[in-house]
Specification:
alpha/beta; TIM Barrel; disordered N terminus; 2 domains; globular; nine-stranded mixed beta sheet; 11 helices; Alpha-Beta Plaits; 340 residues
């Protein structure tokens, strides 16, 4: 369970930033929207998770930056896809008082509708959130300066020092806010923190390269090796991802590739063989296998996501182990579930 971001200021969305109309999303449009955030010294943080143990060595604080160029069908954090702050609605908490309707200046409240927000009309003023006493409406995404975020992370410095932990930037895709990410990682390095970045790889190489000197460990996701299937399941091709995978291992000594195991998708024989072939080509001797779970599906209606629940059951443990055995047989050590 992720914690709510702390100690942050609100950032209006702005009416000029309407919702992405396409089912799979426009990756370039989301990158441009995120660039509007990263041009200023503030970042948009969707969550901060403390005492994490699966996102790098030791005890860590994981910072989830908002915005992602992918639309993975199995997305665990659909509230982190849009780079802008947005409003979440939990219907079960609504008491029907109408206070939100009274204060909305754009008539964007849909009483009696489980979506509750007309997101094409909403300008993100957050007045409805302020008026919602039961907490049915809440803001997703808060603005942070580098200094404020670093101060939050440093609160747990004794735990990092004792366990060999540190800070992990995740998302979404943290490099979609590349200027903020670079500034924060540089500040974290000056503070002596061990830093990890988790990336989907679908970013400009210059943006990735710029942060590597301040990153101790790169977690790099590999999903589907077939370009057409990658586009079908994530909304983008994998050409840039594979190019960046080859680049990053050439310049950074500590890269760990992570592969989600989504039944009927990334677990096919062809995909497993292709993943093993790529890791062997890159002379990688370890991989993290991340079994699918459906916990993100509960978040879809809260932000009126265009993604649809997959309705998949988790991969059986023995099936996961059989896939791991295939990597092991190729000389690639596996860690199931991610780890220290």
């Amino acid at each position: 369970m992720r914690h709510t971001a702390e100690g942050a200021a609100r950032m209006p969305i702005g009416n000029s930033l309407s919702r992405d109309p396409s089912p799979n999303g426009d990756a370039e449009a989301r990158e441009r929207a995120a660039a509007a955030v990263s041009d200023v010294p503030n970042g948009c943080v969707v969550d901060i998770q403390r005492y994490a143990v699966h996102d790098g060595p030791g005890i860590r604080t994981v910072v989830f930056l908002k915005g992602c160029p992918l639309r993975c069908a199995w997305c665990h954090n659909p509230d982190a896809i849009d780079p802008r702050p947005e409003i979440a609605f939990v219907a079960a908490r609504c008491i029907g008082c109408g206070a939100c309707l009274d204060v909305c200046p754009r008539d964007a409240i849909l009483l009696g509708d489980d979506r509750r927000i007309d997101r094409d009309r909403c300008d993100g003023c957050m007045l409805c959130v302020d008026e919602c006493m039961p907490g049915a409406l809440s803001q997703v995404g808060e603005t942070y300066t580098v200094d404020r975020l670093l101060a939050q992370v440093l609160r747990d410095l004794p735990f990092y020092e004792e366990s060999g932990g540190g800070v992990t930037l995740s998302g979404g895709e943290p490099l979609l806010q590349h200027r903020f990410a670079a500034a924060f990682l540089a500040a974290a390095k000056r503070a002596g923190l061990h830093a990890v970045i988790e990336t989907c790889g679908h970013v400009r190489w210059a943006h990735m390269e710029a942060v590597l000197r301040d990153v101790d460990l790169v977690y790099f996701d590999l999903k589907l090796m077939n370009a057409a299937q990658h586009r079908q399941w994530t909304g983008v091709g994998n050409e840039l991802i594979l190019a960046n995978a080859r680049r990053v291992v050439a310049v950074h000594p500590h890269v760990v590739f992570r592969c989600p195991l989504v039944p009927g998708c990334s677990t096919s024989d062809d995909n497993v063989v292709a993943l093993i072939d790529l890791l062997s080509e890159l002379r990688q001797r370890s991989v993290h296998l991340l079994p699918y779970h459906n916990l993100g599906e509960g978040k879809l209606p809260r932000v009126d996501s265009r993604l649809q629940p997959l309705g998949l059951a988790p991969l059986p443990r023995d099936s996961t182990q059989r896939i791991a055995d295939r990597f092991e047989a190729a000389g690639i050590q596996t860690v199931i579930g991610g780890s220290a």
